[in-house]
Amino acid sequence: MGQKSQELYSQFVGIMQKAADLNNASAVLGWDQEVYMPPKSANFRAQQLATLTSLAHEMVTTPEFGKILHELSAANDLSEDQKANIALSLYDYDKNIKLPTSFVEQLSRQTSVCFNTWIEARQKNDFSVFAPELEKMVALKLQQTELTGYNNHPYNALLDEYERGITVAKLDVVFNTVKEKLPAIIADIIKRQPAASGIFHQHYPANAQWDFSMDVLKAMGYDLEAGRQDYAEHPFTTSFSPEDVRVTTRVKENDYAYMLWSTIHEGGHALYEQGLPTAQYGLPLGSAASLGIHESQSRLWENCVGRGEDFWSHFLPKLKNYFPEQLKNATVKELLQTTNRVEPSLIRTEADEVTYHFHVMIRYEVEKMLIGKQVAVKDLPELWNSMYMKYLGVQAKDFKTGVLQDVHWSHGSFGYFPTYSLGSFYAAQFYKHAVKTHPAIIEEMRTGQFGTLLHYLRTEVHQFGRKYNSEELCTKITGKPLDINEFIDYIHHKYNKILS
User: In this structure, what are the phi and psi dihedrals at residue 249, rounded to the nearest 5 degrees?
Assistant: First the structure.
């Protein structure tokens, strides 16, 4: 690299990393807000987050920074990775300069207010507490779509934040396939599966649940020297760098599955963040490819691994050591049928991996209508309940089990939900390729070893950061873009084995 390019690139890295420092400081405050923050801190915390967010935004939207990006974009002496960092940063810059700093600050403030109001609404089980602040959030997101611009549907502007290149037109095809193919599969499984054993609905002391969850995290490869687990209202993972990635979970003493799947799911997210290259800190190649790919990592660990026979062959004896009375007669087959039981339900995060996609589809359809101005915030509970009845045949008992169950809208994360289904479909495709490429993965899992699988994910997914978009990465790994039929085949094979 020539001296001028080297100096410019060093300036670019310095600005990006300082902005990342501010964003990660915000993330620490955000983590604290959801885990430990006392109630009276809410107003000042909103101010602190807004200040840091706006400062970071200003740093990467100045004309001077744009000039550096354009000069480097025209340089012909950058490495492949440097070119990728500049191209992706220029893409981000062109989007970010459309958002005034005052708007970014306002959105950050509203996010803090909205989150705290959501917590209060859940505690009071009253949507009317949340609705006024949600209306303000929706208005801001609508303003965002106008500021950034969009093609065909305003929701496309928000979808692009989480999954670059995804659109309403593409997602409609995906969810039409869900509506077309999954109902018959669900009906067949329900007809064939035995009656529920109730094995996980006994008393499981919280401390013992916690201890076993930590055993699983360690076995997966989660580096506790670079992370920790805590409790939160809604489980999440947050990263301040690959060397500080934190997970949260939640617990019910009369429902063992409530905590275990949260921990494994968030552990999958955390392994991705811990696997990103530290040398690319603050740069596009040091961040995740997309939310769909991020979700593929959590769903792969949660469903393909954690709900699989090989996992339980190793972990059931260990779980019996923690809960000898509750599980004294339990078998691997019984646990497999319990952990993979298919049953329409109300709560997305507790749903089985087949009906789960109707939960996601409902949220996608609701958000699409909300951002398309076809429905008002005040009408959301009724719309939500009618769609749950239509697609899953269940009715929410109250607001907490209905429209208030997810944290995402309080964060302003409209466009996030579809990545959950995309991630599940990518996960099935990646896992199939992983086992085909490294057959030893299966035998290793039977002895509680996950090193080969983690190495596969590190080399095939984690190390590249944002170098490839989701479709490019999937094609690079498996030889073809996302194919929902891989997920359908995975479900058929898995349940035929479990129910045989």
Answer: -145, 180
> Where do we find the tokens 């959950």?
420
Q: How many residues does the chain have?
A: 500
Closest CA to 408 of 19, 99, 132, 130: 130
Compute the distance between CA of residue 5 and CA of residue 62 in angstroms, rounded to an integer: 19
For residue 266, indicate whether it is catalytic.
yes
Provide the token pair at 74.
């025209």
| Distance from C-alpha of 441 to C-alpha of 323, rounded to nearest angstrom | 28
DSSP for 270-326 reads HHHHHHS-GGGTTSGGGS-S-HHHHHHHHHIIIIIITTSHHHHHHHHHHHHHH-TTT
* Residue 204 contacts residue 323 (beta carbons within 8 Å): yes
The torsion angles phi and psi of 373, rounded to 5 degrees, stand at 60, 30
Based on C-alpha coordinates, what's the Rg of the chain?
23
* Sequence letter at residue 250: R
Residue 40 dihedral angles phi and psi, to the nearest 5° = -70, -10
Q: What is the DSSP letter of 462?
A: G
DSSP 8-state symbol, 203: -
What pLDDT, in 10s, does the model give residues 111-132?
999 999 999 999 999 999 999 9
User: For residue 34, what pLDDT is reported?
Assistant: 87
Q: How far apart are CA 63 and CA 258, in angstroms?
A: 49
The chain-wide mean pLDDT, for the chain, equals 95
Q: Which residues pair with 238 in a beta bridge?
A: 246
Strand partners, 231: 249
* Backbone phi and psi for residue 161, each to the nearest 5 degrees, phi listed first: -65, -30
Neighbouring C-alpha atoms within 13 Å toward the C-beta of 190: 12
CA distance 387 to 368: 14
Query: Around Cβ 278, how many Cβ atoms within 10 Å?
Result: 10
* φ, ψ (nearest 5 deg) of residue 240: -105, -15
Number of neighbours of residue 150 by Cβ within 10 angstroms = 18
| Residue 310: Cβ-neighbour burial (10 angstroms; 0-12, 13-18, 19+) | middle
Given this model, what pLDDT does residue 3 score?
85
Q: Which residue has the tokens 């107003």?
A: 43
Which one, of 138, 146, 149, lies nearest residue 412 by Cα? 138
Q: What is the DSSP string of 320-381?
A: HHH-TTTTTT--HHHHHHHHT-----S-GGGS-TTTHHHHHHHHHHHHHHHHTTSS-GGGHH
Share in percent of the chain as helix, strand, coil (round to 5):
70, 5, 30
Distances, alpha carbon 488 to alpha carbons 182, 339, 491, in Å: 8, 19, 5
Residue 350 has pLDDT above 90, yes or no: no
Catalytic residue among 266, 295, 367, 486: 266
Instruction: Give residue 380's identity as a one-letter amino acid code.
Output: L
SS3 of residue 195 by DSSP:
coil
Three-state SS at 167? coil
Q: What is the dihedral of CA 198, 203, 205, 206, to 10 degrees?
A: 60
